[in-house]
Fold:
Amino acid sequence: MTESLPIDGHSLSLDHVLAVARAGCGVSVTQEARTAMAASRRVVERAIERGRIVYGITTGFGGLSDRRIPPSEARALQTSLLRSHASGAGPPLPAEIVRCMLLVRANSLAAGHSGVRPELVERLVEFLNLRLTPWVPTQGSVGASGDLAPLAHLALPLIGEGEFLGPTGARLPAGPALREAGLSRLELVEKEGVALVNGTSLMTAYLALAIADVELLLAAAEVAGAISFDALQGDPGALDDRLGQLRHSPEQRHEAEVLRRLLEGSRLAASRPEYRGQDPYTLRCLPQVLAAVRLALGFARHVAEAELNAVSDNPVVFEGDEFVNGGNFHGQHLAFALDTLAIATQYLAAFSERRTARLIDPAKNRGLPAFLAPEAGRSSGLMIPQYLAAALVNENLTLTHPASVASLPTSADQEDFVSMGPWAGAKLRRVIENTRTVLAVEWLVSAQALELRRPANGGKGTEAALRAVRETVAPWASDRSPEPDIRSLSERLADGSLVARVRSETPF
Structure:
């Protein structure tokens, strides 16, 4: 990754998003993008000079699109649009989401089909490079006609209004913050206000960052599943590659191979001559279910990679002085992807909680102590972490109800069916957080169970996982509060260090 990421409207990737939104990489605008923006700007200027009626330039917006605006008021219209549309509510969006919104909006405008000046995009880039993060409330977008309210809050600081998000979460008035940074307020010209707010930047930001998080969760679930597979002495026949071949599923074959690598050399998850009945689905069907999650991630990635470089405002400017009115700002595909990813993530949590419950149940854990307690009865052992996992899985059940299946019309029924994608994104972030905690519980419990199987050893990968856990969490020798252990493991799952530690010994 270069120190400054050049954007051109066509080349933004998910890795670029992570570098800018989370790692603070700088951004620049290519000369090709400046040239394209200048050309599209001239199309708007000629339309103004000729007195053409163009939506959002010489007309009102939404349900007021039939109102003609005199050319003399066309610039004031753009500023008025930002002010009236900044109608959000609730707590501020996380800084990483806002930084991603800035990047996506700048990249979309840089494609040269929005009729804005290059200096407008340069200012969005300066906000990123100077760590000036607009204060954007979480609630207010219905995910169609663009993320109107959030993007209006994002854009207000450009004109010296609105607020920035301070390092401690405080709201800082934009005017003084701009002066301190040596920046002047911009005067918007025709088309720029509507180009700023008509876009899918919030939904795209939610999706892009969630993909990275769920990919980490999938890897964490693979390892957790393997540790539990060992601790519960699962039948490795369920991981036979021929099953995936017969189902014509490369994803299933991949997941089975990952689990086989992690369990290589195990004396616990090993074939036995005597028949012991079939394993529960959360062991036996692990390759199939993890494969389904991988498929959902593939769908989400396909949607996100396209949308990162999409022009999503309205109207769109083309050569030949053409303005095309359409609906690229509608977020239905993003809403579907966000809802799908939430459901897939819930599967990781639900399977994990069921394995945890089995590990602590003496009727099902194949000879391990009740609740893995050192002195069951006097000690409760790891009984209550499973309660936590169950509570979070239940919370996820409500959160995974699809936002995208419902709609309430807006703008006097002009916008008669909307995507509700932003709520899908907000819910997904909570599902991810909950699932990470559920998986941390399984790592904690399964590591303890694996240790109790001594002297028999687990697989190469599961033993590496046990060592990784013990770098942070001591064995359960007597009752203590498990909260610090769960929190520590959850943090290491979030930053990827726990899985990376296992991969350093057992690549998968």
User: Anything to note?
Assistant: The two ends are 24 Å apart (CA to CA). DSSP finds 19 helices and eight strands in the chain. The chain has a mean pLDDT of 95.
